[in-house]
Amino acid sequence: xxxxxxxxxxxxxxxxxxxxxxxxxxxxxxxxxxxxxxxxxxxxxxxxxxxxxxxxxxxxxxxxxxxxxxxxxxxxxxxxxxxxxxxxxxxxxxxxxxxxxxxxxxxxxxxxxxxxxxxxxxxxxxxxxxxxxxxxxxxxxxxxxxxxxxxxxxxxxxxxxxxxxxxxxxxxxxxxxxxxxxxxxxxxxxxxxxxxxxxxxxxxxxxxxxxxxxxxxxxxxxxxxxxxxxxxxxxxxxxxxxxxxxxxxxxxxxxxxxxxxxxx
Amino acid sequence: xxxxxxxxxxxxxxxxxxxxxxxxxxxxxxxxxxxxxxxxxxxxxxxxxxxxxxxxxxxxxxxxxxxxxxxxxxxxxxxxxxxxxxxxxxxxxxxxxxxxxxxxxxxxxxxxxxxxxxxxxxxxxxxxxxxxxxxxxxxxxxxxxxxxxxxxxxxxxxxxxxxxxxxxxxxxxxxxxxxxxxxxxxxxxxxxxxxxxxxxxxxxxxxxxxxxxxxxxxxxxxxxxxxxxxxxxxxxxxxxxxxxxxxxxxxxxxxxx
Amino acid sequence: xxxxxxxxxxxxxxxxxxxxxxxxxxxxxxxxxxxxxxxxxxxxxxxxxxxxxxxxxxxxxxxxxxxxxxxxxxxxxxxxxxxxxxxxxxxxxxxxxxxxxxxxxxxxxxxxxxxxxxxxxxxxxxxxxxxxxxxxxxxxxxxxxxxxxxxxxxxxxx
Lengths: 264, 257, 158
Ligand SMILES: Nc1ncnc2c1ncn2[C@@H]1O[C@H](COP(=O)(O)OP(=O)(O)OP(=O)(O)O)[C@@H](O)[C@H]1O
Ligand SMILES: [Mg+2]
Hints:
The structure holds 3 protein chains of 3 kinds. Chain A is of the alpha/beta class. Chain A has helices at 43-50, 73-80, 98-109, 114-127, 143-154, 173-190, 201-207, 225-230, 234-241, 257-263; strands at 3-14, 17-28, 32-36, 58-63, 66-67, 83-86, 161-165, 193-197, 210-215, 218-223. Helices cover 38% and strands 24% of the residues of chain A. The longest helix of chain A is centred in the C-terminal third of the chain and has 18 residues, at 173-190. Chain A is globular. In chain B, 87% of the residues lie in helices and 0% in strands. Chain B is built from 9 helices and no strands. In chain B, helix 4 (85-123) runs antiparallel to helix 9 and helix 6 (137-175) packs across helix 8. The mean pLDDT of chain B is 90. Chain C is an alpha/beta fold. The longest helix of chain C has 26 residues, at 3-28. The chains are: A alpha/beta, B mainly alpha, C alpha/beta. Chains in contact: A-B, B-C. The B-C interface holds B 43-44, 46-47, 50-51, 54, 79-81, 84, 90, 94, 152, 154-156, 158-159, 161-162, 165, 184-185, 187-189, 191-193, 196-197 and C 1, 6-7, 9-10, 13-14, 16-17, 20-21, 23-25, 27-31, 55, 57, 64, 105-108. Bound molecules: adenosine-5'-triphosphate and magnesium ion (MG). Adenosine-5'-triphosphate binds at residues 14-15, 19, 37, 39-45, 88 of chain A. Chain A: GO terms for molecular function: ATP binding. Chain A: This is ATP-binding cassette domain-containing protein. Chain A: Pfam families: ABC_tran.
């Protein structure tokens, strides 16, 4: 099985702050790959880099063997047709209904007749349990519902690569179970390649075929879910078990708080 | 000293970059191939920018026309030249006030709305998500708004001039009692289709171009925060209005020497 | 906002715009859609054209029968040459016709008054590009005042 996404020696900085330093990372075709890491480490940024919305300062990112970073505008849009990204914020169109939100990519890229389109949209909404909400405006949804609609929209065109940025945030245990199953089903029935970014470590490890753990500008651990669980790296143990104190800093880099206070 | 030179350098580089980006945006908007879907989007924006601006344009036009009629009458009557009121009202409206006042109102009413809308779309990642759905926001968001603005403005300017001239005739003829035949025929003798109506049309098209461009640029590159968007909206109105006034001066020189 | 309402609104907007344009052209600029019957040019030399401008009207008994098309200066004789574009629908004028530059009111615009001359068998009609010889120049206010003062002096001598 080949690699759908290959990241080669990629570095990226955001306003002086280096987020990635010579990162190498592969996403296997047809598999679910989980990316874990503390908040603010650059997971969302990584997904946007793969989607070509940001350009790395050096190195390269390949999508099915083609460079995303050096692609012309038209080429890039061609590649993006094969990608889906569930935004951390959902990013629904507030002036459209739930139905129209999900129908948006279909209307833009296909010439489906109205009845076919309706069936398709309802199927997508049914799979996230929101068919009954199709006439609500996007602004009338709760946070969790909004993300499920966004998920339905991102998968509307059945992309080859599906990237989920925090799909479980704000979901109750039942919808979380449904979403987990949905991600696995999409992956198995359609052969989608999936990248899941999440903080719900135990749930993600259940469905992931391969796991990367990011910290300190690079990958600190990788392997199968079981391999990660049994890894004894203290940073990993702290992260997976959610311990406040350990080698991974909880704080955004800053000078010592006590010293700051004393200086005042 | 060196610091200041550095700052000037930084500013000029930023300025040139901005110009480049704005130019790129314009080119993308201008050269997107039209199809039915696109025309539908343009239609929707003509509604938002044109139809919804109509009330303010018509009301403002009526009042400006009436004021022009009254002031003009008071001045002209002391020279016994009140017959020329029609000419004065029509020429000042068609050549200057129609295009310029419409443009200023359009910048305030439609330009600010455009900036805020696009800026908020950007801030709430709607534009990002569109990009990731392989929908080019320049073609889907920017271009229809651009064309709709350029189409709507001259239409608004015509309506403004028309209703203002009517307002002037209302004051001059119906109130002050200038002979209606004289009012209109003197006007007709001195208003020229090419010199006055067509040049006015050119002016309003150029103004529309500038306003929409400034508004969309400011919206698209607004800082993604409440303050950023409000700042961008203000900048749109201020910059667009000043540019309209300056351009009006230049165009007037070119047209009427 | 349903599709139909949107189309209706945008359609009315565009139509209203066209209507305003037509109204401007017809009512304000006085454009008539009746067939343009063509035109021809006449020329005339004046000693002084005063405040005459391009597009000033040529009137016959108060009716506009043409407009000033160009104003130039004959380099040899140093006299202004005015080219007039005459509407063909009012016909042609005998070569004995005369032109004078008049002023509408005391401070009004200047225009050319056309007085048709008498017709006789051996008198031809003016055609394209012909010169009208009998012209009277504009009254210049300063000259007028000068003449007036002069005549007062004359009177007082008597
Ligand atoms: N638009 C931006 N401009 C500048 N810096 C940014 C911007 N967006 C994010 N950053 C910075 O980049 C870093 C990584 O952000 P990112 O959103 O990728 O984190 P993340 O790993 O997704 O975190 P989380 O798990 O909380 O979503 C953060 O430190 C953030 O401060
Ligand atoms: Mg994130």
